[in-house]
Amino acid sequence: MIDLKDKLFHAIISDENLLLSQKLEWEKNTLERIFFTKKIMCRNSIRQKWDDNSFSKKNYNGDLYVSLSKHVSKQNEEDTDERYVLNQKTENAWQMYPFSHIALVLNAELLKENKKYVYGPRIPFEIQVEGDISLKYLEALSFPVVNGLLHFFETIKQPLSIYLEALDHFGLYDFWQLEMVLDLLFRKQISVPLVNISTGNEYHNNAEYRKLIRTLKKQ
After folding, report:
1. Confidence class of residue 57 from pLDDT cuts 50, 70 and 90?
2. 186 burial class (0-12, 13-18, 19+ CB within 10 angstroms)?
3. Where are the alpha helices (DSSP H) in 79-198?
4. DSSP 135
5. Among 53, 63, 136, 161, who pairs with 43 as Cys (CB 3.0-4.6 Å)?
């Protein structure tokens, strides 16, 4: 288990207009690029190195900064500065980003090297930092665990069938995401834990449940 309260998070978010298969490919390519460069790069750095304009449109930080999210337990004075904090009643960076998407879990010590940029527009629980972030601060990957995938992260006594029904009802995209991340970590030999964003509990294989899901995929 990892205590997430003092961590910072950088979520991997594709354009909402993409098809599900395209989103999955975009997420995989973005994670691979981050691990290849050993950096979370700002848009300006990405454009200098690659001909890439496929950025998420959910972004306020321009080209020179990287947006991070604080844990839901961390709210301080800068979140209520009405000169720069937008949509305080309707948006929340914790809920919108790491709680809902795959994210890199980072040690907050990065703020000694990447200074906060507090003069640009942002939303509550968002921090913007200057320049690229080194992966030396990476401590884990987090996953937005839905009910259908809880058996891979938590110890649950309820029947597997209950959670399989939930996965069947909402579709298998979340399972495809999980498989993609696990495959990437294995192929790239990346030794960081994959954790449930809600609890910090680490992924563990559940062969019985995985077999049931694969049976569901064939139906």
Report:
1. low
2. exposed
3. 93-96, 160-170, 173-187
4. G
5. 63
